[in-house]
Design brief:
The chain is α/β, with parallel strands linked by helices. The chain is 42% helix and 11% strand. The protein folds into two domains: 98 residues, no CATH class; 105 residues, no CATH class. The strands form two sheets. Strands 3-4-5 form a three-stranded mixed sheet, covered by helices on one side. Strands 1-2 form a two-stranded parallel sheet.
């Protein structure tokens, strides 16, 4: 399963990936990177474990989250050999990574994996399955995140808008002045069969009951006082 880009930076990700593929996590060897980045825990974004038949060395920044654990331990004046220190770093990071896997963030990712599989298998209905099939992996994760939030927080309207903005970054949702239970959706994308399926999927899964929608694709309708949407040939009549 594809993860969000920022999730690749954590030590638990490499362990989770191997566990999900029934591979041996002991073949990973964590070591302190000679060039520590202050912005990430691992020095690489993506790892290919397809042919993992020997020890795989991962360079890490143990101070990214675990300064309290490693600050004294990594003191260069500590009377301990470098080889033993390296072995202890590896053991500690394995332990911390496995503890990570018990935390909520990672539980969420595992649940996303289950939700995506159920959507792909048609457990939410055939129409949902067909619409879901046109999404890429990033978009599928956004949908799974939304489903978790929907059942956890029960705030359908906020979640609907959040998921819409994740799938279509350049989109706007308006309340209809004429009809209280109607919303207007503007999506700055081509009105293709694939995009229509994505928009329908979001409505089916997240739009609050009782609401109706009207969707505008590409060209925006005119709004008085907003020059960007009042250009002739670049707007549609509402």
């Amino acid at each position: 399963m594809e993860m969000k880009k920022e999730q690749y930076q954590y030590i638990w990700y490499s362990l989770h990936k191997l566990i999900s593929e029934d591979k041996d996590t002991e073949k990973i060897y964590f070591k302190v990177s000679p060039k520590i980045s202050p912005y990430m825990e691992l020095n690489m974004e993506e790892i290919n474990y397809a042919a993992l038949d020997k020890e795989y060395i991962l360079e890490t920044n143990p101070f990214y989250r675990f300064t309290h654990v490693f600050n004294e331990f990594m003191n260069p004046d500590l009377p301990i050999g470098e080889k033993l220190k390296g072995e202890m770093v590896n053991i500690l990071l394995h332990m911390l990574g496995n503890l990570d896997l018990q935390e909520g963030l990672n539980k969420r990712i595992i649940l996303n994996r289950i939700i995506i599989r159920e959507l792909e298998e048609g457990r939410y209905g055939e129409e949902i399955q067909k619409c879901f099939s046109v999404l890429n992996r990033r978009e599928k994760i956004a949908i799974a995140d939304g489903i978790q939030d929907k059942y956890r927080y029960d705030r359908e309207w906020e979640i609907f808008k959040k998921v819409m903005s994740k799938i279509y970054k350049d989109s706007i949702i308006y309340d209809s002045i004429d009809e209280q239970e109607k919303i207007i959706i503007y999506i700055n994308e081509k009105k293709s069969s694939e995009n229509k399926k994505k928009e329908l999927l979001i409505e089916k899964l997240f739009m609050p009951l009782g609401l109706k929608s009207r969707c505008f694709w590409g060209a925006h309708f005119p709004v008085l006082g907003v020059d960007e949407v009042m250009r002739i040939g670049e707007m549609v009549i509402f």
